[in-house]
Amino acid sequence: MDGGAHIRFIQPETCQPEAEGSFAQLYRLAHAKAGLARLGVSNLLDWLTRRGGDAAGLDLLLEDGRPLTPDNRDRVKGNIFLSFLFHDLRHRLLVRMDQARIKKDGPFAPLPPGLSQDQKLNWLRSQCCLTLNLVLDEWAAEMADRPVSGCPFARMARFAQGFFKGSALYARAGHDMVSISKTGSNTALHMCFSLVEASLHLGVDLPVADWRDAMWRSRKELKTLAAGSLGMIVTFLHASRLEPEGESAVNPTTGEACAFRVEQGVDGLRLRLDSRPITPFTTGHDRLYTGCPAFHVGGMIEMYLDWVLDLAAHHGLHAPERLPVPALRPQADRLAAMAMAGDD
Q1: What is the phi/psi pair of residue 97, to 5°?
Q2: Number of domains into which the chain is organized
Q3: pTM
Q4: Average pLDDT in the 97-104 region?
Q5: Cα dihedral sign, 253-242-319-122
Q6: CA–CA gap between residue 292 and residue 333 (Å, rounded)
Q7: In angstroms, rounded to a whole number, what is the distance separating the alpha carbons of residues 7 and 91?
Q8: Alpha helices (H) in 64-116, listed in sequence order
Q9: What angle separates helix 41-50 from helix 70-103, to the nearest 10 degrees?
């Protein structure tokens, strides 16, 4: 992917109009109430591409005559750098996911015996995160070995690694370029699994193909949430109890804290996010936000969801567990005895 040939930037501002009272509208209005404005990231990614991944001078573009606080500036810059780099990561992830599907290994391998449906989902969630983290480690190591000349991703990676190491914001949180990539990517996977969990908890019981179509129609909910500020996303996850205990995507959830609801539309069933947990949030110093880096990579969130839906269907987790029909042994024994007596 050298040279940025596969980069495809999107314009979040050109998404479909928001319905009155919809989650998307209320979510955006809550950001405005908190004093936050969304930054047009795609234009900045185009600017970085024209410069071959050289980020020098980005601060002046971000501030545009209105100084940002150091934390706000670093948070925005970190997301922009990862948005750029994830255009390269996406291809590597897609290859690894396809290999796992074909070879039936990793999360596609047989599940441990004796697990309940909730335990199966949590096992898959953990295996997916471990696989994703391994790919991120390999990607970062390979990126460090690429020659900077002719590869904007390698140039940006060098710049980003230095930025994350020198940032007071990320140093306080103990994050570098790879660890912050893992945190965000694991959260994206967790949200995809939460959609599957919600469908089971809400009793959605459809054939595999119909279920998959319904979940695919629901992907806009995930993208809408991902378009928000980090503070607003985290606040929503806490308020809706969607975030698993321990604040890590590999920790188990119960499925009972369901922030989705079933909606039957003209195009079929889908799940919608409940807007009630939306809470305006700001640190008090931020005025700009970008949304999750994966939101700015065409098809990346869809790629995560596609992987999770394939896994759920592969392991038969597309429908609620059906209790076994109680065995009618006493009655069966009586009928058998009567039959034998009649033969005599």
Answers
A1: -65, -45
A2: 1
A3: 0.86
A4: 93
A5: negative
A6: 62
A7: 10
A8: 70-103
A9: 80
